[in-house]
Specification:
four-stranded antiparallel sheet; 4 helices; 26% helix; alpha+beta; 16 strands; globular; 31% strand; seven-stranded mixed sheet
């Protein structure tokens, strides 16, 4: 009996979307897209609300009428990425196709897709912070050290709090930062629960702010996205940008980034339908992007290892 490729593709798509959020260190950012409208393709409609401030109450006239505006801003996901894979029919039959394809797509997503999404999001946030008021919320030229790292993190938290963000914050930090912090606190570092993609984990915290340890190769101020076809870019994926600097840590509110990642209609072709080869063919395509609303640009604090310039 022939395998139901449509049902299999739908199952893969659903599971890979879920795994992308759970495995990405930035997966918590997708929760802010809950009110966004997505109907497939690259376009997303993001709700934007503005309300007027308080007014005096009049004992005769009562309340002053307030204004509220709710509009949807259409944004386009700029990251339109994909690959196709083939599994030779002599190596894969109908009985083991699902198992083998799951392994291939799972490895591809873990090793390439998720790191690229994380790196893109974090570099985009750093770029926003660097561009805000000439980098008013960016600190340069700091090498993490036991004697200063706790103070630096607290200064970052304070900077965001001083701009009026009293809700939950999140810190992304490279392992060098978390190691020095653990040494500085001599085993007394606190831990908090952190939820991401429906999974709760224990992570270290400072002043109740969770610290998400993030691979250093996903913490660059800029990255280069390889197109997969240009000479020298055939390997695809991403790499450190030419002028990129190493981010030590980023502090920001949980509500600041609006991130979306969607796999668009994964396609599976059986050897009988594949016109290119006697092989199973899988087409993987993923849209993703991240945005920060204008009124939240003052909520991202970035600490960078290299000197400015």
């Amino acid at each position: 009996m022939a395998i139901n490729t449509l049902a299999t593709a739908t199952l893969f798509q659903t599971n890979l979307d879920k795994i992308a959020i759970q495995d990405a260190v930035t997966g918590w950012m997708d929760a802010n897209a809950g009110q966004a409208i997505y109907n497939g393709g690259a376009e997303v409609k993001i709700p934007k609300m503005t309300v007027q401030g308080m007014a005096n109450y009049d004992r005769d006239k009562g309340y002053v009428q307030g204004g509220v505006t709710l509009e949807y801003e259409t944004r386009k996901m700029t990251q339109d990425r994909g690959r196709k894979f083939q599994l030779d029919a002599m190596d894969v039959n109908e009985n083991n196709f699902v198992t083998t394809a799951s392994s291939v797509m799972g490895a591809f997503q873990r090793e390439h897709v998720i790191p690229e999404i994380d790196a893109y999001r974090l570099s985009a946030l750093a770029t926003q912070a660097i561009g805000y008021q000439s980098g008013a919320l960016v600190e340069y030229d700091y090498t993490p050290a036991e004697g200063t790292v706790l103070r630096k993190i607290k200064e970052g938290i304070r900077a965001v709090r001083d701009n009026g963000y009293n809700g939950p914050l999140v810190i992304h930090a490279i392992s060098e930062v978390t190691m020095e912090l653990e040494i500085a606190l001599a085993g007394k570092i606190s831990a908090v629960d952190f939820a991401k993609g429906g999974i709760n984990t224990k992570v270290p915290a400072v002043d109740g702010v969770p610290i998400i340890e993030t691979p250093a190769n996903r913490m660059y101020t800029t990255i280069k996205i390889n197109d997969g076809t240009t000479e020298g870019q055939e390997k695809g994926g991403y790499e450190k940008g030419e002028s990129a600097k190493q981010i030590n840590f980023i502090v920001l509110p949980r509500t600041t980034p609006i991130a979306i990642t969607k796999q668009d209609k994964m396609k599976i072709f059986s050897p009988d339908k594949n016109q290119d080869a006697d092989a199973w063919k899988m087409n993987y395509r993923r849209f993703h992007d991240i945005w920060v609303l204008d009124n939240r640009l003052n909520s991202i604090w970035v600490n960078i290892k290299e000197a400015k310039g």
